[in-house]
Amino acid sequence: MPGMVMVPKTTNTMVTNPTYARKRMQQEQSSARQSLNAYSLGEESFDSILAMDSPFVKKVDTATNSIKQVEDDDFDPFHIGDAATFNSTTSPLPTTGSSTIAAADALSTVSDASSLPALVPPKMLVKFKVHEEVSSMMSLTEGTSHVYFHGTIQAQVVSSDALKNAPFTLQSSAGDGSNNIEFTGNKLYTKTSLSKEGDKRMVHVVKIPKEIVGFVTVGTYTSSCKIEHMPLLLEQKVVRNKSKLQIAIQVRSKLTNPDELTKFTIMVSIPPRVNSNSIVIVSGEGGKWDRYKRCITWEIEHLPKGQSFMVSAKGALDDTSESPEAAASNEGLDFPVMLRCTSNDQISPFCFGAVQASGYPASVSSSIVGKSFRIIHRLQ
């Protein structure tokens, strides 16, 4: 019509022309793909966004191409990091301050180290076992016994230190104030040296390895002394009526003994003047007469403390080879008695203990956990 302007119908062309519409869609997708690549999105992420038909894809324009490609951890689309960097009012610490802080830290470390308590020395418990072989002799006319000791000392160490046992010094003392004892150390565990105090005293330092958990023999000792009250009392009585003889032996255990006496063996020697064919055991179970050794032996299993027992035998003199004067004499009519027994006790007056060894700090305590003796007691 005259006076009218014709406007191209581009919109209708996009709608009515499928080829043009498809090309237009491909161009938009390509532009969107380039924009998303700027955000380091992969192909899979892009395809998933397209599948969701998100409006973000349709609104992406060419302005997004100016975004820098950065790593995932540096992604900051709102420039928060830049604002924090440029707007921060906090000034960095001066370089000289770092040395001051280091010095303060070093001072604090030294102060803390000096304030730590000193290492506590290990606690050690030393246990002793003492066994004595005792030989004693008592005269019928004396009340005291002459006693000889040969003892063995065993020790066990229990320490709080899990790695090693500290050495300790072995000490001995006597209840009567004397110290007449000769000690011989086991060279495997004991080192003996002269005291540095100038008193000519021997010092015995014992070191037991950690791997040894039981008792070991650390040394032996010998001594002799006189003892008035033995743990047992041995008495003998001989009665003669012309040519007939009767011998009685009594053994008594002290009431103050800590344990009973066990494994008794009593032997009586018969002099040659007594006819061997006349010997008869009167009392005492288990008594045996040996005419070749000319002795009578009794064996008794145990004797409770505070109790006693008696054994006896009888015989007759052999007067056929003696004159009347010699037969009437008591010369040569001696009946020596020997007794042997054992007990869980200690006869010697010696006490043993452990103290800290010089140069090896430790809190040492000790105790005697076992005592035993075997005695041979003679009566003449």
TrEMBL record:
InterPro entries: MHD. It comes from the Eukaryota. Residues 123-378 form the MHD domain. This is Adaptor complex medium subunit family protein. It comes from Nitzschia inconspicua.
